[in-house]
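In response to reviewer comment 3 from the previous cycle, which asked for concrete evidence that the modeling workflow produces usable outputs, we include below a single protein chain processed end to end. The sequence was submitted unchanged, and the resulting structure tokens are shown without manual editing.
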Amino acid sequence: MKTTGTDISGHMLPLVEEFYSVQGEGINTGRAAYFVRIGGCDVCCSWCDTKYSWNAELHPMVDIESIAANVAAAGADSVVVTGGEPLMWDMGPLCDLLRSGGTETFLETSGAYPLTGKWDWITLSPKKNSPPLPEILNVANELKVVIQDGTDFEEAEKYSHKVGPGCKLLLQPEWSRYREMISAITEYVKKNPRWRVSLQAHKFMHIP
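The workflow returned the following structure tokens.
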């Protein structure tokens, strides 16, 4: 069911899009997953490839039961909730509903808002103008830093010392500057092997 308006309870969310595909980034690259993109973001990175998601008011409010039903119909065993910035909304009800059906929950966030919901995996991708909260740094499963220019390596190192000891460390070239930055990232990882390279594999494969 779709409607308009706001809902702070988390039982209705501004749904930008939902689709069943393959994870194209991070440690879980290549894994099948159902993607749920939530509207709303005030981090607003200049290089963002989903700017259409920023204004939540442009997207219909959808009840979480409909989202869960679509996940089940697709036969997916995991859901990636992304944005926008999904933590602008209460993710607790959606997570509870999905997990009650045995679905694994994955979150992609900048970490700029308080954490809500129970997650099996949290991907933290911090942004310079909206630093992540300590509570999310402490529980992130992977730290994925987008590298647009050479100064981003300093940011990556700064946050790498704030996440937990088991957090995976990933450097990902900003897509429009892939050719300019991939060599620098590769050399950096060779010199600092605790980091890994993350590529947007779905873009190379031309899939959603």
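Residues 91 and 117 are 5 Å apart (CA to CA). We consider this sufficient to address the reviewer's concern, and the full set will be provided in the supplementary archive.
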